[in-house]
Amino acid sequence: MNSLPCVLTIAGSDSGGGAGIQADLKTMSIMGCYGASAITALTAQNTVTVSGIEPVSPEFVALQIETVCADINIKAAKTGMLFSAPIIRSVAAALVDKSFPLIVDPVCVASSGARLLKEDAVEAMKELFPLADLLTPNVPEAELFADMEIKTREDIFKAIDILLEMGPKAVLIKGGHFDSVASTDWLGIKGEKPIPMMQQRVKTRNMHGTGCTLSAAIASGMAKGKNLVTAILDAQKYLNLALRAGFEVGEGGGPPNHLAPMLITGMKEGLLSDLHECGLRLTHMDGLSNLIPESRMNVAAALPHATEINDVAAFTGRITCTRKGEIIIGGHPDFGASSFMAKAVLCARKYNPEINCAVGIRYNDQIMAAVAKCGFVEAWFDLADKPKDLNIEVGSSLEWGTCEALAHHDDATKVDVVCDPGEIGIEPIVRVLGKDFQDLEAKLKLLIAVLKK
């Protein structure tokens, strides 16, 4: 087996396991790297508080770094909690002749509010900045080191310029503290216009160790030979997924789920198997042929943390029927197989996260009467109302329409079907939403039963 690129983390230990050395090593492993460490301090902490800090002597911190680098081929390194001025200066001295990229995460305060950097260490930290290939402060940290308040985009640009003058090759001001729909990190490189790097904001309180995780992921990407921008984008994507998959471990805010990519791989295999089984049941569902549209039918099912088309599985060849009513499933379950249905499911999830699957059925007077008789809650959109400047990307009209229907509904969490009367050249369709395959199949069976009567 080929060796893994080695990444060194120089940071404090988090006894709660969510940040610091522990978060770094988990991240490096899942990103396909080998993690080595130099511990700067021990902390006694959980999800609620930091009850104690025991720093390591500056000499021993330096000895850890020197010993690791003397034997292991380090491809990238990152710093986290450095705690005191003497430790910071010992780290800087140990890294002065480094031959690998260094990410400096200027950790000052824990998520619980406990200060992790002594007052006299702020100026000393600036002495480390010239060694940094990338500096990754959050907004409060950027305000502290730039000695200014950051409220606007212009403030961010000014802070980036001030920080770049302190010596780092690049600065990434993280946008998690801003009150905005999206979370935007700003990358500043000397002589270039700052680059906005946007990610969908995740509503969660499990954010302990996000800065450590991001910087460790960036360092891992650079250790694998990625350029800075690609390493940051990949790290953002990983952190976003880990946040969406976060979980409670105590009474306070928990950490991101560092194993999310591995768990998602297992979930994908399970979902494809479940969709295959659903298809088998549909082939034996008496009367289903009456619901199949002229353009055929497809079932789409999303992963629990789906955000893009490739997170949603469907049949590659759709579902059709013979004139005798025999159900035929074309192709096989696969992710990204139907951009139309994937976009419908993803839009529905924005308004009701419990929705995980959907199926498109025929639209006619009899079926709409059955929908009403079943007591299904309807949401409607009309393609005639779509914006004239709507892009022509596949499924964009359905994406707009589903969001439009649910956004204007009194209670989108109660919607069972999204109805589309179509337009010239486009068949009208009813999209049935389900929390899972069982819920979806139950709705189809109920419709069929009402139609038979």
TrEMBL record:
GO cellular component entries: cytosol
Biological process terms from the Gene Ontology for this record are: thiamine biosynthetic process; thiamine diphosphate biosynthetic process
**Gene3D superfamilies assigned:** 3.40.1190.20, Class II aldolase/adducin N-terminal domain
Among InterPro entries, the record links this protein to: Aldolase_II/adducin_N_sf, HMP/HMP-P_kinase_dom, PM/HMP-P_kinase-1, Ribokinase-like, ThiN
Q: Which UniProt keywords apply?
A: ATP-binding, Kinase, Nucleotide-binding, Transferase
Which EC numbers characterise this protein's activity in its record? Answer: 2.7.1.49
Locate the Thiamine-phosphate synthase ThiN domain: which residues?
279-445
Which NCBIfam families does the annotation name? Answer: HMP-P_kinase
What is the official name of this protein in its record? Answer: hydroxymethylpyrimidine kinase
Species of origin: Maridesulfovibrio ferrireducens
